[in-house]
Write a sequence for this structure.
């Protein structure tokens, strides 16, 4: 008879879930938005995405193999996500060398200095993006205008994003209603007909990805709903108070990468809280900060900064916000 | 919306391979080994010696305290010897080894199939009879049943909850009992109600057993105060606290017993055993177990005599498959891996699961990606990732503060973790340590 049986403690079976399945699930969820960006920005989008992804893989490999001398884990899919997210967050005419710097900062500083996947405090792609935004403000804010599939790469016409149009216009004393005529309609914005970074333009594609991730149980609804909901409520109140000075909730939700941030960046496993309660607090924090930065701050869009700031609070949230224990008195 | 418990939970593949297989009697072996400790609490004291003649149902080891249980011979024959042998837990325990000769039962045991519906015994007589018959919780916990029937002073039982959830994947013995012994289960339930002086009982059954729900619902119309409660299939609904939460929406506080919220929980197999003990004078010396596994020829359900070696039930199901990687006593989520098939089946043996190697081999552990999935599935609202880290760092103070003692060891966290982290292994270690520290403080 078979004498070599395993004796190990329960449970004796596993769900079959794995890090890869979740990571590639997120990648799959980003495909609609990715296809959209190719469709709107053509060659440029392709070049930027390939460069960002290849650089993330390369830097992760080099750092793990030669500097940290640890196990190389580039197959877990997380470098792919960082690459795509980085590409999503930059203009489609960004020069290759700048993208590579962004990838190096994202992987090298954003991820590996903390000890790799699972230990980083900040979303790596956002670390890369914000670094580029501060170092290369001009290149990072000249947004190509969509010319469809045939769009070129470097030599493309550029224009301002709707948020920037509004922000600048308000500063120079124009009324909101007159500015509204200069930006695309809500429907156009939802379908991606506006200037902006590659991944933020097509709300519809991003929402499709969200639905997929919810069905596959890759993420839960808490963070996206908390972010989008709090932005909607806050901007709704401001808009009602003074419709001439503050744009309405639909505009705020469809622009400036809010959906991209709420769906794909704030939900990053590693840099978001563990408990449902914690996730809601974190999500509301992002929503509030985004509105504050957009409305009162210097940058026209605030999602990236808001997420990074809330990333910093996650360890604290995890310590102080406990899940509801079974049998605990409901307050 | 079907009812279920308040937080967490998972839905592992059900794999109820043996659900259609009617209960058969397992042939009586030539030799049985009956351990004197098959329950939670003090081991019983053997009252037979080498050479004694015994009959089926005869008391051979006496309960040695309030939390202990009588043990009866499951066969007729002569005591061959008393010896320390390895049992399913892997420890060597004293067992009474009996050489079988024929199948002669004690005379006062009613062996007829006839249903005895009328309950003559008084409350006190029932509790005594349940204790005398050596009945323990048959869901796997093996806690002496008479103890749970003795409600502590100052507390009152309001409702009896019968655990017919069978939430462990693969196992089907409770399912078969409900289908084949439905009336007996309901009479047993009424006996338990009488002992507890409650006029309401709820039988919780998961909706992956629609035939059992339909059958018992039909029969229950003839019995007063018994309600059949279909539940959404969700693991670990068979946990006492989870079942109470699912059926009556009350949460038993941390560290407290179900009676705190007016509930007493008994397993459906226990209810059947109580029927047999009180109405038929039959002590607990046989029970039903499922033998199952994907590579097994004939996954099936068997009524076996306690003390039968595990290998006999495997033989009955077609023999051990080539690819067997693990032999589990119980279900895949909370069962115990056995190191040998020579160990005896006991009162707590609800099933035997032969898992193929690739189904059970653990994958390499990766770094925690902080996905929070372990937190969201934990039915006790704990943070398994954190408890594992604290157990690893030996931070027992934090473990205690973060409620490690509430862990019911259901394994949902380890089952779910995409990084294949052995969360429960560490949590168990931490729990053991914290329990020691807490005892020392008292
Ligand atoms: S084993 Fe313990 S910690 Fe893990 S899910 Fe179950 S109750 Fe929670
Ligand atoms: S499920 Fe595993 S990887 Fe996810 S948080 Fe828990 S321990 Fe970490």
């Amino acid at each position: 008879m078979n004498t070599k049986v395993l004796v190990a403690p329960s449970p004796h079976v596993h769900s079959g879930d794995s890090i890869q399945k979740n990571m590639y699930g997120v990648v799959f969820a980003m495909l609609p938005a990715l296809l959209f960006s190719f469709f709107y920005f053509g060659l440029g989008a392709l070049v930027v995405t390939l460069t960002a992804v290849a650089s993330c893989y390369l830097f992760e490999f080099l750092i793990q193999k030669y500097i940290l001398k640890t196990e190389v884990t580039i197959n877990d899919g997380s470098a792919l996500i960082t690459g795509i997210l980085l590409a999503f967050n930059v203009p489609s005419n960004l020069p290759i060398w700048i993208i590579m710097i962004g990838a190096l900062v994202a992987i090298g500083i954003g991820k590996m200095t903390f000890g790799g996947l699972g230990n980083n405090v900040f979303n790596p792609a956002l670390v890369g993006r914000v670094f580029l935004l501060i170092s290369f403000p001009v290149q990072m804010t000249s947004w190509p205008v969509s010319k469809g599939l045939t769009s070129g790469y470097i030599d493309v016409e550029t224009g301002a994003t709707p948020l920037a149009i509004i922000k600048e216009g308000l500063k120079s004393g124009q009324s909101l209603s007159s500015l509204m005529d200069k930006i695309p309609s809500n429907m156009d914005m939802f379908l991606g007909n506006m200037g902006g970074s590659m991944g933020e333009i097509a709300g519809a594609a991003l929402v499709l990805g969200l639905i997929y991730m919810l069905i596959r149980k890759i993420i839960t609804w808490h963070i996206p709903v908390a972010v989008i909901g709090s932005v909607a409520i806050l901007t709704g109140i401001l808009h009602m108070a003074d419709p001439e000075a503050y744009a309405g909730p639909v505009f705020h939700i469809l622009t400036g990468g809010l959906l991209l941030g709420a769906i794909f960046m704030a939900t990053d496993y590693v840099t978001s809280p563990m408990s449902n309660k914690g996730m809601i607090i974190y999500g509301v924090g992002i929503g509030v900060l985004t509105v504050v930065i957009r409305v009162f701050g210097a940058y026209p869009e605030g999602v990236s900064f808001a997420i990074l700031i809330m990333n910093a609070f996650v360890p604290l949230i995890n310590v102080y916000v406990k899940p509801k224990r079974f049998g605990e008195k409901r307050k | 919306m079907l009812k279920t418990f308040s937080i967490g939970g998972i839905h592992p593949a059900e794999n109820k391979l043996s659900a259609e297989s009617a209960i058969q009697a397992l042939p009586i072996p030539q030799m049985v080994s009956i351990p004197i400790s098959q329950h939670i609490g003090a081991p019983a004291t053997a009252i037979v010696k080498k050479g004694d003649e015994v009959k089926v149902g005869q008391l051979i080891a006496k309960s040695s305290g309030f939390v202990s249980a009588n043990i009866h011979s499951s066969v007729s024959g002569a005591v061959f010897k008393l010896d320390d042998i390895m049992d399913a837990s892997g420890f060597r325990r004293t067992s009474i080894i009996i050489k079988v000769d024929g199948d002669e039962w004690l005379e006062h045991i009613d062996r007829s199939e006839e249903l005895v519906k009328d309950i003559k015994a008084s409350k006190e007589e029932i509790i005594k009879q349940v204790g005398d018959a050596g009945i323990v919780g048959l869901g796997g916990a093996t806690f002496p049943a008479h103890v749970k029937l003795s409600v502590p002073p100052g507390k009152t039982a309001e409702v009896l909850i019968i655990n017919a959830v069978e939430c462990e994947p693969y196992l089907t013995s409770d399912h078969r009992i409900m289908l084949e012994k439905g009336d007996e289960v309901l009479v047993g339930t009424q006996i338990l109600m009488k002992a507890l002086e409650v006029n309401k009982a709820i039988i919780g059954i998961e909706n992956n057993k629609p035939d059992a729900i339909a059958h018992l619902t039909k029969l229950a119309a003839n019995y007063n105060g018994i309600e059949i409660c279909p539940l959404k299939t969700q693991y670990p609904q068979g946990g006492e606290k989870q079942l109470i939460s699912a059926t009556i929406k009350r949460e038993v506080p941390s560290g407290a017993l179900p009676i705190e919220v007016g509930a007493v929980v008994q397993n459906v197999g226990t209810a059947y055993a109580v029927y047999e003990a009180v109405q038929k004078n039959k002590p607990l010396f046989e029970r039903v177990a499922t033998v199952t596994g994907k590579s097994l020829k004939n996954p099936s359900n068997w009524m076996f005599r306690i003390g039968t070696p595990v290998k006999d039930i495997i033989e009955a199901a077609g023999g051990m498959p080539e690819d067997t990687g693990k032999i589990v006593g119980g279900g895949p989520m909370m069962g115990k891996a056995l190191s040998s098939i020579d160990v005896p089946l006991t009162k707590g043996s609800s099933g035997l699961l032969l898992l193929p190697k690739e189904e059970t081999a653990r994958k390499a552990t990766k770094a925690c990606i902080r996905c929070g999935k372990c937190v969201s599935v934990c039915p006790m609202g704990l943070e398994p990732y954190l408890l594992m880290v604290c157990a690893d760092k030996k931070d027992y103070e934090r473990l205690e503060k973060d409620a490690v003692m509430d862990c019911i060891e259901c394994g949902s966290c380890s089952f779910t973790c995409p990084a294949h982290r052995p969360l429960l292994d560490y949590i168990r270690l931490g729990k053991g340590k914290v329990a020691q520290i807490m005892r020392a403080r008292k």
About this structure: The first strand of chain A starts at residue 143 and ends at 144. Residues 155-320 of chain A form one domain.
